Amino acid sequence: MTSISRPLLNRRLAEFGTTIFAEMSALALSTGSINLGQGFPDTDGPEEVREAAVRALRDGRGNQYPPGPGVPELRLAIAAHQERRYGLAYDPDTEVLVTAGATEAIAAALLALLEPGDEVIALEPYYDSYAACIAMAGGTRVPVTLRPHFDEGASFRLDLDELRAAVTDRTRLLLINTPHNPTGTVLTRAELAAIAELAVERDLLVVTDEVYEHLVFDDAGHLPLATFPGMRERTVTIGSAGKTFSFTGWKVGWVTSTSALVTAVRSAKQFLTYVSSGPFQYAVAEALALPDSYFTAFRADMLAKRDVLAAGLAEAGFEVFRTAGTYFITTDIRPLGESDGFAFCRALPERAGVVAIPNAVFYDHREEGAPFVRFAFCKRTEVLEEAAKRLRAM
Ligand SMILES: Cc1ncc(COP(=O)(O)O)c(C=O)c1O
Asked: What's this model's pTM, rounded to 2 decimal places?
């Protein structure tokens, strides 16, 4: 027998072991806990959208490889959505690309646009696939940390001076996420304008993950970075049906950008999955055309859930940061006399029968995230109420 002495996982990925979500979901199962760890809804999206998928499957639409850029019906619907919501006009044939969820869009964009050694600035804490995809592309991640502020209610904010100072001659792109997972921060118009100015001044590309675009709870609504001056031509915008229509298992995501950038991203995407989710693409095309009432009701429902969980967490003694967008609440556990989010989350299923995620996993500077813990509220109200009851009793 030969022995393979070199580590099997390559150096680029060595630091990315099993994700915390697998560990925590296993703990949820073995302890019978309420799982507020991973962000997936516990009820499916609209019945008519589910039926549209069944119809497509029965009618034989999408059961064979769909076209590489996505089925025309969906590309048209994505372009119409960007135009109707944000006044952003995209050519559905050349400026829209359907992907296997936002996850593939992120991977394909980074694999397409980075050369080894290019620096990518990402807002820390960041969604965990960013670090792995930057690593797979041979890039170097440069985190800019969002820090807690307590002036007008507790929230995490971006320091624009720190962002500017992070740009070097090697910076290739800014990887932005608003509404922001895990903090629930929504970047303000002024912050987005400053990011746009910086990108134009330093001639940077921008990849912006806007999968929670329909979960902004302030009246201002979602502001896509691509709408700011000079941004449309340098911005790759990423969306996802999983978040907006509560079908996370369908893995339908998309990219909108210039034809040159979409062509580049498609060059990488075609060798990742080539295509995916055939019949679901037709269903998502119908979903995107739902009347405004769907989107309004979806947001109102999630807002009510946020308030149930936020109140429960506050009563249980957590410091609760205000979620302006997404379906996550970040808390500070120090008022409970705790300081290590990892230890707290590992013990929480036994102590309270609830699973949460330590925010430290989303940081390079782990110590910055140590006392923060994330809870997902995309669950049925009675589940959130039960979780709140258990946490209060802890
Ligand atoms: C910020 C962010 N981006 C991307 C994704 C992945 O989206 P998808 O399921 O469409 O791949 C998630 C899912 O949790 C997310 O929170």
From this structure: 0.97
Could you give the CA distance from residue 320 to residue 332 in angstroms, rounded to a whole number?
A: 7
Name the E strands within 271-359. 319-320, 328-332, 354-355, 357-358
Instruction: Evaluate: CB of 127 within 6 angstroms of ligand 1.
Output: yes
CATH class of 20-45+293-393: alpha beta
Radius of gyration of the chain (CA): 21
Which one of 38, 186, 243 would you pick to mutate in the ligand 1 pocket, going by the greatest count of ligand atoms within 8 A of its CB? 243
Ligand 1 contact, 208 CB (< 6 A): no
**CA gap 96, 70 in Å, rounded:** 8
68-113: pLDDT as tens digits: 999 999 999 999 999 999 999 999 999 999 999 999 999 999 999 9
Residue 371 Cβ < 6 Å to ligand 1: no
Instruction: Render pLDDT for 328-358 as a digit per residue (tens, 0 to 9).
Output: 999 999 999 999 999 999 999 999 999 999 9
Of 160 and 151, the structure prediction assigns the larger pLDDT to 160
The DSSP string of 336-380 is GT---HHHHHHHHHHHHSEE-EEGGGG-SSHHHHTTEEEEE--S-
Q: How far is the CA of 394 from the centre of ligand 1 (A)?
A: 31
CATH 2.60.40.1120 holds for 47-288: no
Say if residue 2's pLDDT is above 80.
Answer: no
Sketch the domain layout of the chain as residue ranges: 20-45+293-393, 47-288
